[in-house]
Amino acid sequence: LAEADATRSRGPRLRIGSTASRVIGSWLRRLRVALPGTEISLRVDVSAHALLRSVEAGRLDVAFVHEVEGCPLDLPAGLDQRVLLDREPQFISLSRDHPAARRRVVELGDLAGDRWMVDPTVDGEWDGVRRV
To answer: Under a CB-based contact definition with an 8 Å cutoff, are residues 48 and 73 in contact?
Structure first.
């Protein structure tokens, strides 16, 4: 009961989850301006599905997530989604002597013969790379 009273006295709060995104910082700044007095917290996770389950369970209020191309998200019943960005730039680090290193834009097919290091905990990442 004391914990519930303390939560009410703090004022409004917004619990946000996000997969890695270069735009989340600017979105958080805009939210803080738009919602003064609101306690905004951020949980970062590599798993979009884990974040969506947290929204479904009430542990988060909203989650900013992305899909790996060809691996659609399994949206839990009762949740809705909105597309905020059609595509977010992705980056790759290559050695200077790599054949694609001097190109301004590198297609995944250009890297099909290369060896990859992939985080298997990221939803759909391994499946997406395997299709290359």
So the answer is: yes
3-state DSSP call for residue 66? coil
Side chain identity at residue 103, one-letter code: R
Domain boundaries, the chain: 2-64
Query: pLDDT of 92-109, one tens digit each?
Result: 888 899 989 888 888 878
The residue count for the chain: 132
From the centroid of its chain, how far is CA 28? Answer: 13
pTM strictly above 0.70: no
- The b-or-e profile of 10-20 (16+ CB within 10 A means b, else e) is eeeebbbbbbe
Residue scoring higher pLDDT (97 or 129): 97
Minimal CA–CA distance to 44: which of 26, 60, 67?
A: 60
Phi, psi at 112, each rounded to 5°: -60, -30
